[in-house]
């Protein structure tokens, strides 16, 4: 069995284009599907955040009016069962890449606030990519990839195929007034962004990089990770 590192945002507010804040955090369904699937398969799953600060769940992601009553209850129950790990995660800056076979980055808009510019995450992703470890960000999780730059300032994942929450999805059902569009920013940095139909499962695999487009892609990303680390 493998050791898996799930990196979560510690940001509970996203700074919008007009300077105001919008409640955010990690998206419950994405995290739960990945964590539950990997743990159920027998893998040792650690959770880390910048500074080891508590990982906040995006309130919209457990709102029955937004995700449905049954799913909201299921997600709340699972998050409650691992509340200690979410309230006291490992310190991201202390994580050693050699200890993990996989780095997973679920979404929610929170990663746009902190993980996209976190130097410790950038170093971890760079080392993980160098050794060929599986890197699996999905939905807004690929914002974390933006932290990985080379010494000359270039984007480590430029030229790599990937997907992420699309601009069309953000405009249609995301957060109004986001400071920047994720798929657009990744493309501007040199990534080859391949979007699928809005709100459908879409996964892109480029060597050790496994990316998913949206919450609907959570299960497919998890399956792809499980297949990659058991190969």
UniProtKB/TrEMBL annotation:
Keyword annotations of the record: Glutamine amidotransferase, Lyase, Stress response
Protein's name according to its UniProt entry: Type 1 glutamine amidotransferase domain-containing protein
Lyase among keywords: yes
Species name: Schaalia naturae
Family per record: Belongs to the peptidase C56 family. HSP31-like subfamily.
Coiled coil, from the record: none
Entries under InterPro entries matching the protein: Class_I_gatase-like (IPR029062), DJ-1/PfpI (IPR002818), Prot/Nucl_acid_deglycase (IPR050325)
Domain DJ-1/PfpI: 29-227
